[in-house]
Amino acid sequence: MERFQRMGELMAERGPEMVMSLLVLVVGLVLVRWIIRVIRNALLKVTDRLTLVSVVCNILMVLLLAVVIISASLEAGLQPGPVISFLTFVCLGAVGIIILFRPLIPTLPFKVGNVVKAGNLLGRIEATTILNTRLKTFDGKTFFVPNRKIPDDIVINYHFTQTRRVKIDVNLRYDQDLMQAKRVLEEIMIADPRVKAKPAPVVYVLNLSRHCVELGARCWVDNPKYWVTRCDLLEKTKLGFDNAGLAFAFPQLDVHHHGTRSGVLAVNAPFETEDGLALAEDEDLS
Fold first, then answer.
1. What distance in Å separates the CA atoms of residue 87 and residue 80, rounded to the nearest whole number?
2. Which neighbouring-strand residues pair with 118?
3. Contact 127/134 with Cβ under 8 angstroms?
4. For 97, which DSSP code?
5. What's the pLDDT tens digit per position in 94-134?
6. What is the pTM of this model?
7. 163-244 in CATH: which number?
8. Going by C-beta distance under 8 Å and a sequence separation of 6 or more, which residues neighbour residue 171?
């Protein structure tokens, strides 16, 4: 009973200061979180060095938290000298630990919102905790991946760079106009506003195979627009070749009848199977 009486007297005497101190602490923590987020996003726009950005943001967060705690302590009526001395010691120790040991602490190679491929899973990172990472695939499934497994596997982060190259490969028949096909592919890429002007779109002759001329169209787009742009360029390529009267190549089997008395048929197979093994040529079928 005496303890509750003392607490009541303390609240009556220092109640407004304690309420104001708590308000300063809550508002300060919210502001610190918002300021750090703004600074992190601004730094990521000018540099892709995630470790440096993380170290800078952590140091700034420690300093801002110290300012908030000092302000809340002063509002509560505490003596500023001991509080400032203690927080200065804590801040220096925290900054030293961050600078010295931060590069040695393993971190996940992605952040929330990134599209990644971890192992055989492809999807968007929704959340990360100390124990696991929540990944949502594009077919609506949610996976909880243990963080201890991620460093031991290959991870592809499609948002680690701002741009990504689109590859459009086309097989053209040998009797088609090669230069016209290259012009059609270049015009399709240049006309799309999502395609970057630098590096400029380019079309290569990749290979002269046994049944076609292999063309490769290459261009660069922003990472978030990659998939939709690639699908649209594939559709425009098909329509563009149709409008230009260009024919795609496909594996085919030519059968020639030599008209011999024995009724022998000669089969020419000038193409390769999908696994790269050539089929027999001039095989006689009796």
1. 10
2. 121, 155
3. yes
4. H
5. 666 666 665 555 677 788 888 888 888 888 888 887 788 88
6. 0.53
7. 3.30.70.100
8. 209, 211, 212, 213, 214, 215, 248, 249, 250
The tens digit of pLDDT for each residue in 41-59 reads 887 777 766 666 777 777 7
Residue 250, SS3 per DSSP: coil
Q: In this structure, which long-range contacts are made by residues 129-137, counting pairs with CB atoms below 8 Å and at least 24 apart in sequence?
A: 133/108
Distances (CA, A) of 19 to 7, 25, 235: 14, 10, 64
d(CA 211, CA 3) in angstroms, rounded, equals: 94
* Whole-number pLDDT of residue 8: 59
* 54: Cβ contacts below 8 Å, ≥ 6 apart: 102, 107
Alpha-carbon span 67 to 7, nearest angstrom? 28
- The β-bridge relationship of strands 132-137 and 121-128 is antiparallel
Q: Tell which wins on pLDDT, 160 or 206.
A: 206
**C-alpha separations of 196 from 72, 117, 165 in Å:** 51, 25, 10
Architecture of domain 115-157 in this structure:
Roll (2.30)
**Identity of the amino acid at 230:** R
Helix (H), strand (E) at residue 59: helix 50-75
**Which CATH code of 1.10.10, 3.30.1380, 1.10.287, 2.30.29 fits the domain covering 14-104?**
1.10.287
Structure tokens at 242: 């149709």
